[in-house]
Amino acid sequence: MLRATVVLLALLLFAHAPMLLNDGLFMDDWMVLKPRPDFMVDIDFLLSSAGHPIFFSYDTFANWTGAPVVVMVLLALAGILFGATCLALTAMRLGLLDRAEAVGFALIVWTYPGYQLWAGKANAVYVFSFGLVFVGAWLLALAFGARGLRRVLLRVAGALVFLLSFALNSTIVLYALVLLGLFVAVWRSGNAAHGFVRRTWLAAWRCALSYPELMVLPLVYWGALNIWFKRIGVYAQHYDAHFPTLGELAEGWRVFFVTSYRDVIAHAMRTAIDVPVLFVVAAVLVGIALLLLRPDAEPTASRSANAVPLVLAVVSFLAMSAPYLIAGLRPSSMHFYESRHLLMFGLPAALMLLAFKRQAERSIGPGAAFALVFGLGTIVSIGTLWNEYVFMQARTLKQEALARDLAGRRQPPATVYALDDGYFDYPSRHVPFGLTEVTGMLRLAWGNQPFFGFSLRAERPTILEEMEVARTAQGSAFHHFDPSGAQATISFQPGPGAAPNYALVRKYYGCRLLSRCDVAQFLGGLAEVTIKPGPIAGITPLDRSKADAMPSR
Q1: Are 464 and 472 in contact (CB under 8 A)?
Q2: Axis-axis angle for helices 171-188, 212-228 (nearest 10)
Q3: CA dist 440 to 87, 232, 418, 437, Å?
Q4: What is the torsional sign of CA 55, 58, 62, 65?
Q5: Is 80 exceeded by the pLDDT of residue 341?
Q6: N or C: lower Cβ tally within 10 Å for the chain?
Q7: What DSSP state is assigned to residue 339?
Q8: Terminal alpha carbon distance of the chain
Q9: How far apart, in whole angstroms, are the C-alpha atoms of residue 384 and residue 270?
């Protein structure tokens, strides 16, 4: 067990090592975290309108330390390492997986590349919350066989851990699956002579009486949110909660399947063609791990049990999609930020691979089946994950290049800026900067003023009117954005040091880790920046009299 745990942690550290080098902020990170001590953020909206008290606590602590990026990176790594370890240990303790299967299963879950925001800082709370679910499951598994004070302490600790995991609301579905596992364990320990119906009823009754804290925990959490931290204004409207029709469910599940699996495989194939070295290195690491793990020589489960992972894969996929479909939310693989709904979807993928492995081991043996299914799956997962880290690091470098250039200039007589992003046409993957990113870079460069910045290619011509409505709406997080000021256009074009993402990041790593060049000089060559004061072409001017008449939502 010790060897398996060491192999698991070593592979996860290699897989997520790029996270340690990425100190950039992305999208809404700019709203809640301080890139430097004098950078003003107002995160009260997390409590007063968004209904996220646990998020508020994490972000407040991170900013209080003066090093929020470091805190959030460590939080994400803690979620990954503790979550994966507890997942593997729980599966082995309950006899669900053998040692090699547990490691392969955990690796697939915690290197899932469909979730592209592993390097996101505020979203580190998502990752940590996901990990806490498995920590809670491990504590529950220990408590199930414990007695006396140890059992009480384990159950109290488990309840607190589960409560914190609800910071990511959709983990409550995963929590329900944990409770289902508890019910099955109690059911199996019952008297078979009672018959199926009575045995099932007694198991449910015993779970409710023996673990009342777990039964009421979600009710306590949601009750507290709706009493003390109720969503208001734009946040109440954001979640279009309703009972979807069968057609909506079918379409929603189709979108989730396409985004979380089909698009991931297609992206992996393109990456393997464009940057094969990522998969070669991943194959070497996985090959070493296979030699150290030495999978069992006997089939893992009976033929009838082989179908269980397949059924659980379907059930978990449908269940974990349901909260988003009820809220009217959909993921997207085209914009990295819209992949935030997919964090947990490595779990159905791991269950599916487990089903394939157990089917294949009947023909080619457990060792070969494990190497073929989980070995190949992990190589694809890690290689694609690294490519996502390359993209996010390249995005950070472009942001830093722009912020450094602006900081070295005198501020023009304007507070509203449109960014003409030339990297959008560069022959390498790029997503236009969001308005929180552009505005954040302006404030980082020129101080805490009521700036408003946006990318021309990413917004509609009516963006100024839309922001005026958004900032005056009840519970808005944008009250310090002012779209009514003097205007200017920033031309941000690739400079002489520009390169495709992989080459760009490789050179940056050489500068930062091997001192092959000066990082500041390297960043200075990435872009050519010019600023043209005056009305922004193609953008509808803000009619202040009309804006004043707009009702707050």
Answers
A1: no
A2: 160
A3: 38, 25, 13, 5
A4: positive
A5: yes
A6: N
A7: G
A8: 56
A9: 10
420, 489 Cβ separation under 8 angstroms: yes
Low-confidence winner among 196-210, 258-272, 413-427, 443-457 (lowest mean pLDDT): 196-210
497: helix, strand or coil: coil
**Cα–Cα distance between 289 and 100 in angstroms, integer?**
10
Query: Which residues, other chains included, contact 527 with Cβ-Cβ below 8 Å and sequence gap of 6+?
Result: 398, 401, 402, 405, 422, 423, 492, 493, 494, 495, 498
Would you mind telling me the total number of residues written for the chain in this entry?
A: 553
Under 8 Å between Cβ of 79 and 130: yes
Which of 183-187, 320-324, 485-489 has the weakest average pLDDT? Answer: 183-187
Q: What 3 state SS string does 80-137 have?
A: HHHHHHHHHHHHHHCCCCCHHHHHHHHHHHHCCCCCCCCCCCCCHHHHHHHHHHHHHH
Q: pLDDT value at position 187? A: 83
Structural tokens at position 25: 């902020």
Sign of CA dihedral 180, 183, 188, 191: negative
Residue 143 pLDDT exceeds 80: yes
Confidence of residue 551 (pLDDT cuts 50, 70, 90): very low
Question: CA angle at residue 14 from 276 to 8, to 5 degrees?
Answer: 115
> Model confidence over 373-395: pLDDT tens digits?
999 999 999 999 999 999 999 99
Cα–Cα dist 45/59, whole Å:
12
Q: Which strand ranges, in their side-by-side order, compose the sheet holding 527-533?
A: 452-455, 416-421, 487-494, 527-533
What would the two tokens of residue 329 be? 């939310």
Name the token pair of 545: 């009299």
- pTM: predicted TM-score of the whole model, two decimal places: 0.92
Q: Is the pLDDT of residue 142 over 90?
A: yes
What is the H or E stretch that residue 531 is in? strand 527-533
Band of the pLDDT at 227, cuts 50, 70, 90? confident
